[in-house]
Specification:
Radius of gyration: 13 Å
Number of domains: 1
Distance between the termini: 10 Å
CATH architecture: 2-Layer Sandwich
CATH class: Alpha Beta
CATH topology: Nucleotidyltransferase, domain 5
Shape: globular
Largest sheet: 6 strands, mixed
Structural class: alpha/beta
Length: 128
């Protein structure tokens, strides 16, 4: 499984989400077809731009459970004070991607930030 974890400022557009997603995928030599899901944290579950991007891609937007986010925290590569204050995760996008991919998942690299959107790619097993 390959999942893109997303965080954002309030009110980001679908296009901003897709641009950040494409940049994060390109960083790891992947394209949209590699994705199985998008993920986010409960605080962002009503963010219209995230839902619009998921719908555009035909992918589920999975809201990670708090317990799974907490368990993913030690595996995050980035520490953001703002993210921690808002979500109690070191990085909302990294923790969401890891949480949705499961306990044995790993990040392909640190999150990317672009135009108010953060995006991190996680995988399970021996995939990229």
């Amino acid at each position: 499984m390959i999942c893109a974890g997303l965080g954002s400022r309030s009110g980001v557009s679908r296009d901003a989400v897709l641009a950040a997603l494409d940049a994060a995928l390109a960083r790891h030599h992947l394209d949209r077809a590699a994705l199985d899901a998008l993920a986010t944290v409960p605080r962002k579950q009503d963010e219209t731009g995230l839902h619009a991007a998921a719908s555009h891609l035909g992918l589920p937007l999975v809201v990670a459970a708090q317990g799974a986010l907490r368990d993913a925290r030690p595996r995050c590569l980035t520490t953001s004070k703002a993210s921690f204050l808002a979500t109690r995760t070191n990085s909302a996008s990294e923790a969401a991607a890891l949480a949705v991919c499961g306990a044995q998942s790993r990040l392909l690299g640190p999150r990317l930030t672009l135009n108010g959107v953060t995006c991190a790619i996680a995988t399970t097993g021996n995939q990229p």
